[in-house]
Design brief:
By secondary structure, the protein is α+β, with helices and mostly antiparallel strands. It is built from 2 helices and 5 strands.
Length: 125
């Protein structure tokens, strides 16, 4: 599970406090790394207008999709990427994938990983 309760927050704030925990043998650690040339006050990225192509299945949501393309797309997602993020570039039928993503997002079956940006002239990685 990618989004668990055991996290290390880079810049902890009052509203984002988490409980302490210890690494255990067999734990798998996932790192989200974000770096920018902006100063510390403006270091948090803003969601860009570019369309995201990376998504993750929301495991606690269920819905019977209406369109044939969406059902086919969601079936592939459940078989190949049940818990890990994926890109729609990995699908053979990209048109069907785009239709499926739209319907899945409308019914909260997928979570999008947004593209982050900074003000003009700053770099983000």
């Amino acid at each position: 599970m990618i989004d668990g309760n055991e996290v290390i927050i880079n810049c902890e704030k009052e509203q984002q406090r988490v409980e302490d925990w210890e690494f255990a043998p067999g734990d798998v650690i996932h790192l989200d790394i974000y770096t920018t040339t902006a100063d510390e006050e403006n270091s948090m990225g803003k969601e860009a207008e570019m369309r995201t192509t990376v998504f993750k299945r929301e495991m606690d949501q269920q819905y019977n999709l209406k369109s044939k393309h969406a059902r086919a797309f969601f079936s592939i997602v459940n078989n190949k990427y049940p818990t890990l993020p994926f890109s729609i570039r990995g699908f053979e039928d990209t048109t069907g994938a785009k239709v499926g993503v739209k319907e899945c997002l409308n019914h909260d079956l997928l979570m999008a990983y947004p593209v982050l940006s900074q003000k003009l002239g700053e770099y983000v990685a």
